[in-house]
Amino acid sequence: MDVILGGTANGKKEWVQQNYQKETRWAWCSFYKMDILDCTLPEEQNGLLVIEAFDEAVKRYLDDPETLYSWYKTLIKWENEYKARKLIVIGTDLNKGIVPVEKKDRQLRDAVGLWYQRLTKEAAQVYEVWYGQSAKWKG
Question: Are 54 and 20 in contact (CB under 8 A)?
């Protein structure tokens, strides 16, 4: 798994498309547009699965973290099933800047931060993308 984090509208999606273009098989699940349970995992033994807007999935399942964790374990199992599979997780960094006033927004910020700690710990590579430029944190 590779994890790409950065600010809103800072070029994460474009950076992934540019830097993983050598992959011939792509599947893309954007949680700006769909629910995690609607994301179909490719059956091929090779290829790339991109999860965009992981923070939106955390937001949707803030009151049901067990479902999100169970789905995440399914993703990891999918990737580990065949060596030629690759999981890419894109997330927006919500932890820099002003602490939110509303309790629910602070809970989301904390939950996203905890998820990103888990993701970056388990990832092979971690990148931060700001203004279209990347910095490699891990791997």
Answer: no
Closest CA to 75 of 59, 97, 57: 57
Please say whether the beta carbons of 115 and 31 come within 8 A.
no
Query: What is the domain-level CATH number for residue 115?
Result: 3.40.50.300
**Domain enclosing residue 91, as ranges:** 2-42+50-95+104-138
pLDDT one-digit tens code per residue, 4-38: 999 999 999 999 999 998 766 789 999 999 999 99
Three-state SS for 85? strand
Contacts of 10 (CB under 8 A, 6+ apart): 129, 130, 131, 132
The region of weakest confidence among 2-6, 41-45, 78-82, 127-131 is: 41-45
CA–CA separation, 44 and 26 (whole Å)? 10
- Count of domains in the chain? 1
Residue type, 45: Q
Q: What is the pTM of this model?
A: 0.94
What does the mean pLDDT of the chain come to?
94
Task: Answer positive or negative: Cα dihedral of 114, 130, 16, 57.
Answer: positive
